[in-house]
Amino acid sequence: MNLTTPPVPEARPGRSRRLLAGLLLGSVLATGSLAGCSAAPELDRDAARQLQSQVLAVTEAAASSDPAASLKRLDELVVNLDEAAARGEVSFKRHQSIRKSVDTVRADLTAQQAAAEAARAAAAEAARVAAEQEAAAQAAAAAASASPPAVVPVPADSGKAKGKGKGNG
Q: Counting C-beta atoms within 10 Å of the first and last residue's C-beta, which end of the chain has fewer, N or C?
């Protein structure tokens, strides 16, 4: 019997984003399904539908590799979650659970946004350096291909000009 663990799939960009967004979605979905199970619902059915819709928007933005849009959608989700909690549609316990998932997703998206901005800055710097190098190469080529200035010979002094100036008497 072989008890080795199966190989772990290689991490791909976006995979963790989708996984975390999926965890958030699962958290909200699970909360919605528990709403009808107790006397005091942890999550109102209408609030659950609204939050699920917003989680889907976060997930879609994350899947399209748009961390800025994902963060914006996540902010909207938090506002609606807090409003639902204030109206008593979300229990304190469930609110805290969802916020914890939101914080996890936010940390991942913020890191991805920073990495994307760093990559853009590095690409812009590389393009600037390449443009400077190209300009320097073109200037050097232009200088090398320009014909050297013509040399005009200066006549040698034959000495005939002596005695014509001031002070000769």
A: N
